[in-house]
Design a protein that fits this description.
The chain is of the alpha/beta class and 491 residues long. 46% of the residues lie in helices and 14% in strands. It has helices at 39-59, 75-84, 90-111, 127-139, 154-159, 175-181, 223-235, 249-264, 296-301, 312-320, 332-351, 362-369, 374-388, 399-420, 430-452, 456-468; strands spanning 4-7, 12-15, 24-28, 64-68, 143-146, 149-152, 196-201, 219-221, 239-245, 270-276, 279-281, 328-330, 471-477, 483-489. Helix 13 runs antiparallel to helix 14. The relative contact order is 0.12. The structure holds adenosine monophosphate and zinc ion.
């Protein structure tokens, strides 16, 4: 079946032809690990998980490589570490924050039915690759050193001849307009307002590495260079698909293209650029100040949204009901509708028991192959569900034939749900509950240890973290008089 994907760069939907069908390569920008992921962050994770599953279906599991990075060096991480662990050396505190957040992220997106990517590289483990790209850019005249910073010059890129794309082509902006429209108070180390940071000096105590380009002061990378380095290391100089949310087109992806194409003298960094639309909540932009900011964890494990918790399959189905390029309005009504649909499918699969392994029906694969039309795929699921329950009037006449046709439709529904990663097996599955129980036990153990060390600040912080998950603690004593902590979900 022909897969067609919309490319942000060329602004059209084209047949997708992998550079090497035996090794289809996709890179998606992953989370910056400093706090619980919100439901907007879940959108690219779910959307590109569906694409990953579809590519595996079309090209074979062993022939698809999906890389999603973890950004573990960032000012927001430093701030959080200093705030949460004031007693610890900053680097140790940072490790605690990033490890804990990475675990939370995995637990959350696992519960949403997302497969782990083939590789999940961490930025801090690819500083060598970043330095080497920066050296190439300086040597090629695309970047310069000023006041211990290394800056990329889009003007130098656009002045170069040859295969290079023009800076601004992904975001469809002209560099001249960007320069004209730039603010006047440009940082003193920049020659041009549009120059962006590849490397910067670290402040004392901040994470730092030996600097490239002959700079004596230790420093740290800018954000954009991370993804050029990690995609290069794991996927090569050019690869098939690069994805992320629409907000990343400019400047992040534009700058990734600039860095990678100039360093490797290539025309394209990725053959296809894909971007998901934004998610808003009940018609409003999600923001902390509006009070409608909602994390994946709160949806799964608290009653903060709609007065109840939601299972992973419901959240996933609700996300996929809207085509990935459209904006999505995240509402309680839509979750209730998704929840009913999941229950309907579940009843059908339960009714037909074990079932046979069958091919995913053509209608479902062809909907997904049309630029990931998950909305149309769900319409197909509904049709299969109706056929499984004998609600259509077409088809066989004898009762035995009708039942056999019903069973086939149920098997096809099961196979289709599997391709979409929607697991309707059982309500708030045992696996999900187990993740939360283990998580909660781990946090309670950490709090007990903090209390034993009289680290009241840490112990309060953990209690607050649990409270945010909807978990209330009760401190008591066991039969031998030893302190024990029990928990329950807030009502
Ligand atoms: P961030 O942590 O802000 O870098 O975002 C991580 C990923 O989530 C990126 O791919 C963003 O584009 C995406 N993202 C962030 N907020 C939203 C939102 N409200 N709707 C959809 N995607 C989002
Ligand atoms: Zn990126």
């Amino acid at each position: 079946m022909e897969l067609r994907l919309y490319d942000t760069l060329t602004r059209d939907k084209r047949p997708f032809t992998p550079i090497d069908p035996a090794n289809v390569r996709m890179y998606v920008c992953g989370p910056t690990v400093y706090d619980f992921a919100h439901i907007g962050n879940a959108r690219p994770v779910i959307v590109f998980d569906v694409l990953f599953r579809l590519l595996r279906h079309l090209y074979g599991e062993a022939h698809v490589k999906y890389v999603r990075n973890i950004t573990d060096v960032d000012d927001k991480i430093n701030d959080r570490a200093a705030r949460d662990y004031p007693g610890l050396p900053l680097n140790e505190a940072i490790r605690k924050v990033t490890e804990q957040t990475e675990r939370q992220f995995h637990d959350d997106v696992d519960a949403l039915g997302c497969l782990r990517p083939t590789v999940e590289p961490r930025a801090t483990e690819h500083i060598g690759e970043m330095r080497s790209i920066i050296e190439k850019l300086v040597a090629g005249g695309f970047a310069y050193v000023e006041q211990d910073h290394v800056l990329f010059s889009p003007s130098a890129m656009n002045a170069a001849n040859g295969v290079l794309p023009r800076y601004g082509s992904l975001a469809n902006r002209s560099l001249d307009e960007m320069i004209a429209g730039a603010r006047v108070d440009v940082a003193p180390y920049k020659r041009d307002a549009t120059d962006f940071v590849l490397w910067k000096p670290s402040k004392p105590g901040e994470p730092s590495w030996p600097s490239p380009a002959g700079i004596a002061t230790p420093g740290r990378p800018g954000w954009h260079i991370e993804c050029s380095a990690m995609s290069w290391k794991h996927l090569g100089e050019t690869f098939d698909i690069h994805g992320g949310g629409i907000d990343l087109v400019f400047p992040h992806h534009e700058n990734e293209v600039a860095q990678s194409c100039c360093a490797f003298h290539t025309e394209r960094m990725a053959q296809t650029w894909m971007h998901n639309g934004f998610l808003q909540v009940e018609g409003e932009k999600m923001s902390k100040s509006l009070g409608n900011f909602i994390t994946i964890r709160e949806l799964l494990a608290t009653n903060k949204f709609g007065g109840r918790s939601w299972d992973g399959a419901t959240l996933r189905l609700a996300m996929l009901k809207t085509h990935y390029r459209q904006p999505i309005d995240w509402t309680v009504d839509a979750l209730e509708e998704a929840q009913k649909r999941v229950a309907k499918y579940r009843r059908t699969l339960e009714r037909f028991g074990g079932g046979k392994n069958v091919e995913v029906p053509h209608g479902v694969v062809s909907a997904l192959s049309d630029d990931l039309n998950t909305h149309a795929a769900i319409t197909e699921l509904d049709a299969l569900n109706r056929r499984a329950n004998g609600v259509t009037h077409e088809g066989p006449t004898s009762e035995a034939d009708a039942l056999a046709a019903n069973a086939i439709a149920a098997d096809e529904l099961r196979a289709s749900l599997r391709l979409l990663g929607i697991s309707v097996a059982s309500e708030r599955s045992g696996a999900v509950n187990q993740i939360f129980d283990q998580n909660i036990q781990r946090l309670i153990a950490a709090r007990t240890a903090a209390r034993a060390n009289k680290d009241w600040k840490e112990s309060d912080r953990i209690r607050d973290e649990l409270a945010a998950m909807g978990v209330v603690l009760k401190d008591g004593k066991d039969a031998d008089g030893k302190p024990v902590t029990t928990w329950e979900l807030a009502r």
